Amino acid sequence: MYVDWEKIDPEAATRYGKILSSDHYELKAMGRTGFWSMPHTLRAKAYQHIIHSIESTSTTADLDTYHGIVRKLFGELQTSTHPFPKFMEDGEIPRYCLNKAGLNSVKKILICINHHFPDVSFCPILSALVSLLLHFSEDEAQCFHSICSLVSYTDPKKHYIDRTFLTSRALCMTFGDLANKYCRGIRKLIASSHQNLFEFYSDWIMWIFADLPFTYAIRVLDVYLMEGYKVLYRVALALLSFYKVCVSSRVAHVDDFRQDMKSFVQNVGRHSTIDALLQRAFSIQLPTRKELTYLFNANKDALIHKDIHNKSSYQAMDFRAFRSSVVTETEMRVIWAWIPERFALFSPVQLFSTNIHGRSLFSFYSKVEGHDPTVLLLKTEDEEICGAFLSSDWAQKNCDEKGFKFFGTGECFVFTLRPGMERFQRPVLQISGMSDKCDSSHQKQTLSVSSLLSTHVDRPTGASQNQRYESASFCTLSTFKFMAGNDETLFIGGDDGHALHLQADLTAGSSEHCDTFESPPLCKGCFKIQSLEVWGIQHSLSVPPLLSQ
After folding, report:
1. Which domains does the chain have, with CATH numbers?
2. Which residues of 82-102 are buried (b: 16+ CB within 10 A; e: fewer)?
């Protein structure tokens, strides 16, 4: 405020001039490489420049707004006995090297935000964001104004802050779906230990904005301000991938995965530099923002369907009453950890069993048609156990003069449980419910998300480039053969082999390498079936509404 820092540090002045003259895509690249990380004053100016571009389309709260709220709430002495706002889960403020006066300022700003945004009922990251931004603000009013800009930003493709438990939990579920794709194995570890996946993933955003050391957190903040929420998915997945390597050698000694992950993140410097962490984060080829938004909305619809609007309304899945002739309770927990989050909210219900309904595909179809998704479980006479998660209704099966009609979506996967536990699935994210742009004859609409989409900071060349990306991902995935059948036979997977092939009398079958799921034979070649079951979810979910283009 009192010093012309540009004269003391001319290199920082040159860098700031480059920031001011750069467009959005250049600034994204700068943020990812730490261009404005030093000195402190350069980062402060960069933040204000970025937030100014956000505030121009969002908040109406100016600096005078804060002073008015402070006078109203705290009086002339500006002292406060107010409790922490309701949107803070535990009332804790990350210190981030703040002194007592700094922590008091954070609390005052949070109370003012609570007054200015009474509809914000659940947002545990706000305290961390206020603490971080206060480091780079001239005063409390500027920090308040910056936070208001982030809260008010309404573009769904690049949002910053959620306001309710419902939206926060839907984001947790979306992260869980992504973790299921990109950090395979961690869910199996947690589920098989009978620990709560809901609680583990509910901390995902706090790994970044509470547990990460300050020097790591501000580098994440650099890219978060530029790119929005999607960056947080990337960083959390990168942390989870590093944690998976760390915990795999000592999993038998972990009594509490949730606390163990928190400790790992707090001490992440032992395992990775911030540059290596961000490099890992941006090497993860996530779906597009539009496709992530669709998955988020599908998860939110599932929560509404389940009537989960706050933390107290959520109940962990109880498998103690689960009974099966094929799998154990622990094995079913693992399967339920593998399936998409919006279905894992609901309890499994048995639709078909060879022990109850007999051995015929006719009986099989009569019991399972009209239900989706379903889980097929199979035990061979050699005590091998395998199966498949099938996203589509078997009522879609059909044959014509060209042969079997394959259907299904990229959410389908196959797995083995005994002798070893492993899931096999194409590295794509495909969500039931959105129109398939390549095959309009499909009764079930599907959303395809190719994992091969670029994650580099590429400057778009117009709408045609996005259209090429979408067309490529939809058309490529539509050629995969997920499931098919008739009264004589049933196929799961059909690209260069069948993951499962069952005969009409359900007494025998076969399994071979299958490119559909990139899976090896699930059991010994040809096998005899000891028992077969099909499970659905307790409550069917309607297909969520198609997002407007």
Report:
1. 165-311 (1.10.472.80), 331-431+479-537 (no CATH)
2. eebbebbbeeebbebebeeeb
The whole-number average pLDDT for the span 173-202 is 83
Residue-level pLDDT at 250: 82
Q: How confident is the model at residue 546 (pLDDT cuts 50, 70, 90)?
A: very low
Integer CA distances (angstroms), 461 to 25, 224, 468, in order: 12, 24, 11
Q: What is the DSSP string of 487-523?
A: SSEEEE--SSS-SEEEETTSSEEE---BTTTTB--SS
If you search the block for the tokens 């960069």, which residue do you land on?
Answer: 46
> Kind and range of the H or E element at 304?
helix 289-305
C-alpha 403/C-alpha 400 separation (Å) is: 5
SS3 content of the chain, % helix, strand, coil (to 5): 45, 15, 40
E strand intervals along 81-160: none
Alpha helices in 308-423 (DSSP H): 329-338, 341-344, 354-357, 361-368
Name the more confident of 425 and 434.
425
The pLDDT tens digits for 44-56 are 999 999 998 886 5
Are the CB atoms for 501 and 489 separated by under 8 Å? yes
Residue 281 C-beta-side C-alpha neighbours within 13 Å = 23
Rounded to an integer, the average pLDDT of 543-549 is 34
CA neighbor of 314 nearest in space, from 197, 193, 206, 209: 197
φ, ψ dihedrals at 209, nearest 5°: -105, 50
- What's the maximum distance between 2 C-alpha atoms anywhere in the chain? 86
pLDDT value at 444 more than 60: no
- Decide: pTM greater than 0.90: no
Q: 539, 305 in Cβ contact below 8 A?
A: yes
State the residue for tokens 């060879």. Answer: 354
Q: Quick: pLDDT tens for 207-235.
A: 999 999 999 999 999 999 999 999 999 99
Q: What is the 3-state secondary structure (H, E, C) of 219-282?
A: HHHHHHHHHCCHHHHHHHHHHHHHHHHHHCCCHHHCCCHHHHHHHHHHCHHHCCCHHHHHHHHH
Share of the chain above pLDDT 90, in %: 53
The DSSP output letter for 449 is E
CA 143, 144, 148, 149 torsion-angle sign? negative
Q: Please answer whether residues 34 and 15 qualify as being in contact, where contact means their C-beta atoms are separated by less than 8 angstroms.
A: no
